[in-house]
Prior knowledge:
The structure holds 2 protein chains of 2 kinds.
Chain A (H helix, E strand, L loop, with lengths): L1 H33 L4 H4 L14 H8 L1 H34 L5 H12 L7 H10 L6 H24 L4 H9 L4 H30 L3 H4 L8 H6 L9 H21 L1 H8 L6
Helix pairs in contact in A: 1-12, 3-12, 4-7, 4-9, 5-7, 7-9, 8-9, 9-12
Chain B lengths: L3 H33 L1 E2 L9 E2 L3 H8 L3 H31 L5 H9 L6 H12 L6 H8 L7 H4 L1 H25 L4 H9 L4 H28 L4 H6 L11 H11 L3 H31 L1
Antiparallel strand pairs in B: 1-2
Helix pairs in contact in B: 1-13, 2-13, 3-8, 3-10, 3-12, 5-8, 8-10, 10-13, 12-13
Amino acid sequence: MAREASKGHKAAVTVLAWGVALLIFFPILWTFLTSFKTEGEAINSHPSFLFFDWTLENYETVNQRSDYLAHFWNSVVISVGSTVLGLIIAVPAAWSMAFVPGKRTKDILMWMLSTKMLPAVGVLVPIYLLARDAGLLDTKTGLVIVLTMVNLPIIVWMLYTYFKEIPGEILEAARMDGATLSSEILYVLTPMAVPGIASTLLLNVILAWNESFWTLNLTAASAAPLTAFIASYSSPEGLFYAKLSAASTMAIAPIMILGWFSQKQLVRGLTFGAVK
Amino acid sequence: MATQASRIAGRLMLSPAVVLLFLWMIVPLGMTIYFSFLRFNLLMPGTEEFTGFENYSYFFTDPAFWPALVNTLTLVLGVLVITVVGGVALAVLLDQPMWGQGIVRILVIAPFFVMPSVSALVWKNMLMNPVNGLFAALARALGLQPIDFFASAPLASITAIVAWQWLPFATLILFTAMQSLDREQMEAAEMDGAGPIWRFVHLTLPHLMRAMTVVVLIQTIFLLSVFAEILVTTNGGPGTASTTLTFLVYMQSMLQFDVGLGSAGGIVAVILANIVAIFLMRMIGKNLEA
């Protein structure tokens, strides 16, 4: 009897949860479906959900506009470049704070976090002027530098929380066996740190890919990543729903797939370890 | 324990990150403060002069300032209420036994990964457009008059879009916090005849309190900087109906090239964000000791 009730409960919860989930997901699903419609079908006043003539022509059109691929490439270079550069700076820093903590380690960590609290608009003008004077406006290099600095505190923090979980005894054991500092890092730490570094990499590529304040303000045309390119669809091209949908689908698909793999790291990275 | 050599090595490894972040913070911030006391317009180079607090008094008396401040707070509060209430409800729902929980979670989290310009454009054109949008089609099918969302309720429309983007974040964090809820205590309360509402109010909510605080603080930091959603949908209008502080500073410095005025506004935004940040830092700092 009790089992029956709980099965009924489970069925009710399942229906409700799927309903809500589909509602939340709907705008994305709708964009995905519209990307396979013709422009006429896309603005049909009696929209059809699945029963239309599926076509790939929007993807062809969008890809033939070679600038789409250029902007896609900009997004890849900027997000991966800034993440890798950030890791190169952050890995040694997080390593030293996790394994050779000093009196001020905690203060340094908190201070790094505080730089993240500075609203971007507070430093918009100086960064813009500095980039302009250095000839870095509308260049990938400029954006890589800016996004590296924007995300550096998050990278350091994530790595720190991962490194903290590597047991220190292992290092001491290695030292007892006569391992030097470099072999300690290479053979003992690195293998244990790889999963944490990979998660950090993943989350930061996602954050940098979607970053929309600096990418919109510091680029004009040649270095604009997808965030800026799609924003330029605002009007009147945005009224071509099918092409807009195809461009949007291609812009968000790679990152959404990466994102689904990084759900757990997301919580940890974005709450700076406050919720695990 | 740690040898002298490893301590020095540690210091060397830490310094690039510290030095770079320090420069990144202090140089632009110092420049913003300096600019905020200058008459400085990019269209009139060479006319810079010290003006004291003139930019600040201009900024505070700008007819757009109060609407922008009110809009900022409305947007932030609106999104916070929707995402925290919705997030708690979803976290409790997702925590129940069900079929296909993994897929449900994937669907709910998805909007967080959509870049702001895409979600703003999709909502503006494909859903909320008064002629060709899906909501208009639905309204017509029900025999209602389609609503021109961005003309009649611009700020509410932007709030809806931003809330849609951040609901997954709140849900994900609250759901993660649900995992550490004491199940035995729950069952004991159930055995004692406590109803689901009593258990929710007295056990679940207090347990989620901490995670809710974290959600509120972190979202506030990000929400104060909402930009692309406004740029793509309303451009701050009609009038100042959807202009926030961030957008106002952007307009003054990037569109009117008034660097001095924009910098003064930037400093005001920094002070506002700092008030939130102090609370957030205290929470995370406590966690670091635990």
